[in-house]
Write a structure and sequence with these properties.
Chain A has 112 residues and is mainly beta. Chain A has strands at residues 4-6, 10-13, 19-25, 38-43, 50-54, 58-59, 67-72, 75-80, 89-95, 102-103, 107-111. Helix content of chain A is 0%, strand content 47%. Chain B is built from no helices and eleven strands. Classes of the chains: A mainly beta (112), B mainly beta (119).
Chain lengths: 112, 119
């Protein structure tokens, strides 16, 4: 299975400041069709996960534009341009290029 | 409005069996892959099983192969997870989720149902 590793388990951030979460995979996530299937999810306390981004950088409907994704191959990043209080939660990356789907261990974003 | 509502979780002893159900609404169920993903506080999120729209293709994690079976009834807009020979390490919140294709991954999650395996 593809191992997905998020570099930080915890990320304290000051309100209004940017945040960045890194995700690395054990093998390339470029699919044979040329696309890269990386999703990012937000899980707020007590809630189920919600998808924010798909195919590395495409935002889901209703997701604020302060969330952005980038990366290629094996290295990916989720960025929040200005953290708001509602962004508190755990963020997961997931690869869907290879079966089975595999997830990073999660990064808990908290307010300083 | 898309909805996925899981049911069937509970407390049971090691070696027991349980069937989880997930009732879908708000979208054309047969057009979507359906997934079961579990969340263990100690180990994060893990894909358990997935099945395509017409039920002809499925995939399960090695740790549950031979014990868990995913199935679906498109007439009832419901996906199931039959869990047999349960172990303590299967204790988790089990989420039902959907995806438009295997590569699209997951685009919507249910609220989850808790399965606790303990003697």
């Amino acid at each position: 299975d593809v191992v997905v590793t998020q570099s930080s388990l915890s990320l304290p951030v000051t309100l209004g400041q940017p945040a960045s979460i890194s995700c690395r995979s054990s093998q390339s996530l470029v699919h044979s069709d040329g696309n890269t299937y990386v999703n990012w999810f937000q899980q707020r306390p007590g809630q189920s996960p919600r998808r924010l981004l798909y195919e590395v950088s495409k935002r889901d409907s209703g997701v604020p534009d302060r969330f952005s994704g980038s990366g290629s191959g094996t290295d990916f990043t989720l960025k929040i341009s200005r953290v708001e209080a509602e962004d508190v939660g755990v963020y997961y990356c997931m690869q869907a290029t290879h079966r089975p789907l595999t997830f990073g261990q999660g990064t808990k974003l908290e307010i300083k | 409005e898309v909805q996925l509502v899981e049911s069937g979780g509970g407390l049971l002893q090691p070696g027991g069996s349980l069937r989880l159900s997930c009732a879908a609404s708000g979208f054309t169920f047969s057009n979507y892959w359906m997934h079961w993903v579990r969340q263990d506080p100690g180990k994060g999120l893990m894909s358990v099983s997935q099945m395509n729209g017409d039920g002809s293709d499925s995939f399960s994690a090695d740790s549950v192969k031979g014990r868990f079976t995913i199935s679906r009834d498109n007439a009832k807009n419901t996906v199931y997870l039959q869990m047999n020979s349960l172990r303590a390490e299967d204790t988790a919140v089990y989420y039902c989720a959907r995806g438009s294709s295997p590569e699209a991954g997951i685009d919507f999650w249910g609220q989850g149902t808790l399965v606790t395996v303990s003697s």
